[in-house]
Amino acid sequence: MRVFYEDWQMGCCGTPFAVGDEVAWKLVAYDAENVREGYGHGAEAWVENHGGPDHPTTGRVHAVDLVHQEYSFHLPDPRPAPVEAGEGLVLRGMGRCLEPVPGAVTLEPVGSCPKWFGEVERDPVDGLGRVRRTCGALVTLDAPDTTHVLQAPYLPDGIEDDECDDLP
Length: 168
Description:
Elements: E1 2-6, H1 7-13, E2 22-25, E3 27-29, H2 32-36, E4 45-47, E5 57-74, E6 99-110, E7 119-125, E8 128-142
Parallel strand pairs: 1-4
Antiparallel strand pairs: 1-8, 2-5, 3-4, 5-6, 5-8, 7-8
């Protein structure tokens, strides 16, 4: 089975693994709508370190592909307006809102999954900044018993049904 291990799940509570390792993960299946919308990059389930099923699914890692997504963002104004001295606090937006670039997902076969995932700045395209982020690992897991995979719909504790439109 194919499993998506998100970058934040690994960075928070995950343990790095390699091809050939035996792992035990709490897995939640993607539903048909999630698959149609492209969640999981072709995976059948995702690793859930913050809830999920009561029992983990055990299996052997057969393959690991890092998932890279390219994003675009508006570049900051190189000449921000001057601020007049005065009382109070002046706040300026310095962050960037990343938008996925359609069709810009790539897979990189690797021998192991890192604990931390990175990003690489790219050259601007059409006046927009670009960054390539590693957003997780797509894992081929040889799992003989998948009875503990939690089937969708899965509602995390404290989430109401009408709040789930934006959940993965």
